[in-house]
Structure formats: C-alpha cells, structure tokens
Please model this.
Amino acid sequence: MLGLRAAWRGTQNNVKRVWWRDSVQNRADMVGLDSSILMHPRVWQASGHLDHFTDPMVDCRACKRRFRADKLDEDPWVHFCEATKGNKFTIPGGEACKHCGKKRTLCPACGKGELTEPRQFNLMFKTFMGPVEEDAAVTYLRPETAQGIFVNFDNVLQSMRMKLPFGIAQIGKSFRNEITPGNFTFRSREFEQMEIEFFVMPGTDEEWHQRWIDERFAWYPRYGIRKENLRLREHEKDELAHYAKRTADIEYLFPMGWSELEGIANRTDFDLKQHAQFSGKALEYFDEETKQKIVPFVIEPSAGADRGTLAFLVDAYHEEEVKGEKRVVLNFHPELAPIKVAVLPLLKKNERIVETAKKLTAELRTRWYCVYDDTASIGRLYRRQDEVGTPFCVTVDVQTVGDDKASADEKVTIRDRNTMDQVRVPMSSLAEIIAKLMDGAWPDVFRDHGITKH
Ligand code: ATP
Model:
C-alpha cells in the first residue's frame, strides 16, 4: 500500500506525458492547447451544459443519503426479506430478491428508507466573476476541457495554419459536483482530462471516428493494460448525448466491475455551430479545393488521467511468493514507472561504495528519475523498489570500488524488477545500457552481461 501511494503522482505525470507525446508530439496533424478553466458563462449556455449537464439524483427518506438514480442498478442493495422472517440479504445490482421477488425500491445503503423520485441535478460548480458578488456574473468551473478547444478553434486555425483533418489536444483539470464520488480516483469532483477534438470534413466523420476508436483502444495495451481487461461498449441510441451521432466507450475491468475509461464520440458540427450562433462569430473552415466555407465535424476521444492511472496501477499490481516470502510488484511499463532507476550501496558504512553510488545517482538523474537509498539491507531495498514499480536497481559493491585484497573492477550490478535477473556491467557504459533496457532490450543485455538467474 505504501508503494502504491508513493507511485501515484509520478505515474499520473507519466501517463499524461506519454499521452501527450503520442497524441501531439508524434503527430503532424495535432496541436496542443491550454485553455482557461473559467470562461464566459454563455459558453456553457451554447454548449448545452446549463440545460443538459445533469444527473438524476434520489434521496433516501430515512438515512438521507443521496445516489445517482442511473447508477443504482450497478450497485448491490441491502434487503430485509419478509418472506424469510426479515433476513438481511445483499443482492447484486439490477437483480430481484430470490425469495420474495421484490426489486429495489429501498435505499441501497440502509436498506430501510424509501427513495424519492429522481430530481435532475446540474453538475457544474458555480462561481462569481467580478469583485462584488451581487453585481458579478455567475459562471462555472469547466466540467470538461472540450469547450475551451471549440471556442479557440478559430485562433488555432489562423495562427497555426492547419488544414483539415487536424486536431487540438489538451490536458487539464475539470470539475463536476458528483453526487457520489468514490472508488478511489475513479470518480472525483476535481479530475484531469486528456481530450482531443479532431476536426474532419463532413462525410469523412464516420471513418475517422472508427480510426480513433481503434487507435485509442490499441493505446492502453501498449503501456501494459492486459487486453482481456479492456472492452468497447457502444452507446445505445437512447443513451447518446444530445450532440452525439455515435459514441463508443473504452471500458476497463476495475475492481468494482467494468467501467468507463474513455469515451470516443462523433460530436458532428454541433459545438462549432452552437458557439458560432451564441457568439455571433462564424467558426468555419475555408476549403481551398471547393472554394467553400464549411463547418467541420468533430471526433472527440476524451480520456481521464485519473481513471487511466488507476487502471494502469491495478493492472500492474502483482503479488508472488519468492523463497517463502510475499513479493509485491508493480509491474509497470518502464515509461510509466515513477522511479526509473534506484542506486543502492551494498554496504552503507563503506565510504567508497557510498560515494560511488551517490555519484552514479547524480549522473543518471540528468536523464531519468533516479533515487539513492541506503536505509535498509539490500533485500529490503529491492522489495521497496519492487513495490513502487522501479524497473531497474543498480547495486554498488566491494568489487566495484576494490579493497585491500582486490583492485576495483569498476562494474555495477543491474537487477531487473520482473525477473530479478542480474547483469554486471562496466560503470562507464551504465547510462548507455540503461537506455537500452528502457527500450526493452533486456534479452540482448542479458546475453552480453547476464550473471544470475533467480
Ligand atoms: P461517467 O458516466 O462515469 O460519469 P461520463 O460519461 O460523464 O462518465 P465523460 O463526460 O465522457 O464521462 O468524460 C470523459 C472522461 O473523463 C471519462 O471517460 C473519464 O475518464 C473522465 N471523467 C469523467 N468524470 C470523471 C470524474 N468525476 N472523476 C474522474 N474522471 C472522470
């Protein structure tokens, strides 16, 4: 658990970093943006959030707890069954009691109170723009990053001279006044989104939508998510958002069941047209070929950095038995591991070992997130790094620095987190070898330098 906590922030930064590299840096058809969190209130009128961004909420009349009505069927419910003299049962969500046939009408938490009729509840956080509250305009913390992209469409088009198809990508905080936050970072009121709005010629939208679904579905396994834990779920017609022609969700098998990781929607030309209408300023693209102005369609892959990080963590978590003891490992892809290399001195009282290890740490740190640790025995230090998911440990020992009996061999040992195999390499080529290992070349390095098989 300690490892998990320590791993969180660094892993999330890495998830965002690889998403940005793959979605923006490596693509000629994408630009990055960082738009405002607070925008003119009419943005939220135009986007439909003021009218439609609601969840149905029900209250328990007895214990006063609140629930999202549309999620109630996903959670188990507590039932005191009269057919079995009031025995208490916990029944899976969506199912009826086997004994009396009753369906859920009572509170899922206390099992006693009646639930109220659903009321629509707007999820946007309100705030005031302007120094004097009474005169100030009411506005909202953004509930998604997407609208900041739409209102900047023309700026980007003009300043970056983009040609269709092209995308604008953004990573940033979004805020939703969720009725039932929970499941660790799965649902929180303040979270980070990684969103792309990809603008295409009308008529090519369905093909581009499918391309983005395929691309995003293939992205998660590239960084370690097991394919059997991922699935695509098409939105039913009656479930589609008001702006969407088709939406597919990428779902992950979280510990609480299959749940959304990312949504990929064909939003048509709805948003650009709405913002044009509300702002009085056309949001169009001039097509050189046909000499016509058109309103592009937009495909939106919208991922959550917090949900993504949680999925990568859950998938990486692994327990095994080694020599009669439990070993906890976060089996992270090296790109996602919060610490890439740990340098560990075998003897913390040997000054030459400590000095060499600290010098190596300082050198490696210029390229990777690297730590030095001498606060426990080597076995304990290895376990600590396994728990936090560090792919490689470098150990400096007596042979490295030499002693009265033998001269220094100037070599260090690198240990692989997953296999616990070790290689002994010259210190002078350590950085170069670690770079190879980060690229997955362990078999080559092991062939050249491997020494121990566990
Ligand atoms: P849900 O149905 O679970 O409430 P949603 O369909 O409202 O999610 P979207 O509006 O499609 O979610 O948002 C895109 C992505 O942003 C989601 O796939 C998810 O990864 C992330 N996200 C949305 N709401 C939250 C939240 N409250 N906490 C963490 N991440 C969230």
